[in-house]
Structures are given as C-alpha cells and as structure tokens.
Amino acid sequence: MSRKEQTPAQISTFTMMMIFIVLAISFAAIILAIQAYSVYENQFAAAYLTFIGILGIALSLYTIMQVRRRLARLKIETPPVITTIECKKCGFKSVREFQRGDYVFKEVEPCRKCNENMIITAIYREFKEKRKETTSF
Amino acid sequence: MMMLQGLLFELPGGGDVFSQILTILIYAFLFISLFYGQKIQMHLMLKEIEGSLYRLKYIRDEGRRIAIETIKEVGKPQKDPTTMVDRFLEYFTIQPEDMDPAGIVWKLEHILDVRDARFKDEVKLLAPEADDVQINNLENTLEAAMALNYIYKVIRHYYLLGKKTLSLYIIMQIQMILPLVMREAEAYASALKAFAYGQPIGDGIGPLVAAKLMHGYPVRKVAKDCVVAEVPIEGRIAYVIKAEGPGGNVGKPGDAVKAVIEENEGKIASIIMIDAALKLEGEEVGEVSEGVGAAIGGPGVDKFKIEETILKYRIPINAVIIKEDIGDAVSPMRKEIFDSADKAIERIKQVILEKTKEGDKIIIVGVGNTIGIGQ
Lengths: 137, 375
Ligand SMILES: [Zn+2]
What we know:
By secondary structure, chain A is an alpha+beta fold. Chain A is 50% helix and 18% strand. A 4-stranded antiparallel β-sheet of chain A has the order 2-1-4-3, with no helix packed on it. In chain A, a hairpin with a 6-residue loop joins strand 3 and strand 4. In chain A, helix 1 (2-38) runs antiparallel to helix 2. Chain B folds into 2 domains: 46-197, no CATH class; 202-366, Peptidyl-tRNA hydrolase (Rossmann fold, 3-Layer(aba) Sandwich), CATH 3.40.50.1470. Chain B has a 7-stranded mixed β-sheet. The radius of gyration of chain B is 28 Å and the shape is elongated. The chains are: A alpha+beta, B alpha/beta. Bound molecules: zinc ion. The site of zinc ion has 8 residues of chain A, from loops.
C-alpha cells in the first residue's frame, strides 16, 4: 500500500525544493524593490526587481499547478460501461450497468411483460469529451 | 568623455547596490546558460522522462494487481498466483530468422501457435476453475499486463542509459517518442481492465458487425476459434465469419476464409472484410469507409493466407473499415463505434448490390477481438 503514497511524494520533493527557493528569491526581490523605491528612490531598480519577483512567483505557481495536474492524472479512470437488454417479442428495453459475464447476444432473464427470454443487444461506454477541440479543420 | 565612460561602464539600473547585484545575477545567468545550457536542458529532459516513468510504473503495477485479483476471483487457485504471474510477465517470443524469407510465414505461424498453446496451458494452471471464455479473457488480460511491463522496462532502460552516459542523443530520442509511448501505455491499461471484465473493446467492431449479420442463423465451427454462418442477404448467400465469442480471441480468419473458399471450390463472387482501422487525428470516431484489399492487422499470417487463397481463385476483395484511434481500439467500445455497426452493415449491403449478382456466394469476415461479443 505504501507504494501508492510513495509515488506522488517522490515526484514532488525535488520540485517542492525548487519552488521554495524560487519563491524565497522572488519575495526577497519584491522586498528589495520596495526598499529601492522608498529608501533609495531608484525607480529603475525597483521596476526591475518587481518584475523579477512577479515572474518568479508566477513561475512557481505554474509549476505547483502542473504538479497537481500530474498527480490527478496518475489515476487510471474507468468510464461506466452500459448494457442494454431488449425483448425481441414486445420491444421492452432496459438499461443497466455492465456486470461480469455480460456479452452481446447473451440470453438473460425473461421479459417482465411477456416471459420471453431477453437478449443483450448493446454494450458500450458513454464517452464524454473533456473539452471540444476548436479547430477549423 | 566622462559621460560616455559612465554610459559604457555603468551597469544598467543605476549605481546602487541592488541593481548591481541584479545585473551580476543576469550576467551569471547568461554565462551559465551559455556553458551549461545543454546540460541543464538534458537534466530537465531526464526529469520529464522520470515523471513519465513513475506513471508507467504505476500503470504496470496496477495492471499486475488487476490481473492477479481477476485470477483469484475467477480461477480460484489453491495457492497464491503472484509468483507465477510475475514469471508470466517476463515471457518472450523470438521472431523467426528472416535472412532467407521464403516460407517465413509458416515458421512465424508455428511459433505463434506454440506461444498461444503455452499461454493457454499456463493460464489453465493459474486458474483451474475458469471456463473456456474466462481462460481466453484471462489470457488477454495477462498479455496486456505483459505489454505494460515491457513498455515500462524499455523506457526505464533508456532512462538509465541516458543518465549513465549523459548522451543527449539517447535522452532526446526517448523524450521525443514519450508522448506516443504514454498514449499506448494508457491504451493498454484500459484494455487490461476491459479484458479482466470481459467487456467488448473498440477493436471488436468487426466481429460485432458479423455477429449482427449472423445472429439467429445456425452457426458452425470452421478453422481454429472461428465460426461461420450462412446468411441470405439481398438474394445472395453470405458466409459470415467471425472469431468465436464471447471469450477474448481473434481466431484464425485466414484459415477460415481458406476453408470456406475450398468448400465452395473457389466459386465465391466476392469477399468483404470488416475491420477497425486507426484513424488520423481530425477524423471522426466511428467513420465508415470502404476500399479494396485484405483489411486485417496482426502479425501478417492471416493476411498472407487470405491473399494467397484469393489470388489462386482470382476472387475480388473489398474492405469496409471503421475509424478509431489506438485508445478507442483497446478500451471498452465507445457508443459512436457501437452505433457505426449499422452504418457498416448498410455499406456492406451497398457493396454487395453493386459488385455481385443475385444467387452469388460471398464471404463476409468480421476481423478483430471478439471479447464480450457472442454470435
Ligand atoms: Zn417482452
């Protein structure tokens, strides 16, 4: 079981250290910027340092987001698979979740209406597009 | 003069301490990237590969775990199957020598037969309580786990080799194909789950079309793991062939087609093959298109046999394919693909009407893995 917890932790130690260093430098840069502006009245340096600070913070936030996304990606997702059962005689249709042993054209329990054996006519998974690609091709 | 000197030697940002430190930092950064840029890039690449390698390892371990659990659940073995599964995951198959390629198809077929028989025996030992359908499914599950194990090991090999040699060429090579490798691994992971549960996969669209055509007609066995039914379609007699379901297996459509043609002494007006085909990015999933030629993948043995036989009797061959991507092909069948079966049947009827006369005999082959699809 420890394997599961181990994997994300190992990804993040190095990254976390880097993020921490970059964040520290960025904050230092911003403090220096304020100092440069108020004490030394050097606007140019202040602008420089502010830029560096903001860039550093933005980069670390981006990296944190990326790591979080990677961790979310680690799971293997299982989409729901749906089995459709139909009665050939009266057209009665029922839909349920897939069960082990189901297969297309398998005869299953008798129909609730006419006691004729029903068959599985479809097994498929509903696929939901995460986001629609917007290309004009 | 003083002003020029000031402009030249004064570091940008004025003369105060902070901006000077900053400038030095910028210069340092410049030199570091000049001299160590490639090294840094290489380490970044290695990091990226490492990340993917963790994911591959996770996928492989999950696959192994699911395989073992399924064996325990379905096969009810007396002792723990873990060690046997681990041994199974390391199995390999050696391709026949192709220096003198004449007759290589039969050598390859023989080796694949041996492999298949060996796998079946092994799975029977692993899962003594499983029936034939479950044994086929377990075999497929283990094969997917094997593929995942192999992918992980190969990527790990190149990662470690790259780290050891620090050769940009090795590292870049693996980093460039990594997105495709990861897609394939994800596909195998979802395939493994589908196999473990016995769910139909996207590749099963060929057998599904055949099953829809032959459903309700008497079915007999032909060749190994294949079934055929005589179905009247549009006034013609169609011999519909598919792998025997619902266990996971692709059968030997090559032998089946050959057997049916020989039963009819070559008097077959046309052959129509239905198969799933890899789509290009941008194409719709479940798109049906048609063409000519033997639509069948795999190691090539069946394709070779079909082409040999139709050449002997000069039988025209048509193909109807359903487009899907690698992920769709091995994961549980998407609704779009399932729905395309009816479109494919329409296409087949159209081809029959255009290319054959009433009373003709034709062969329709649904190619693919028939897991989760009966007949
Ligand atoms: Zn009914």
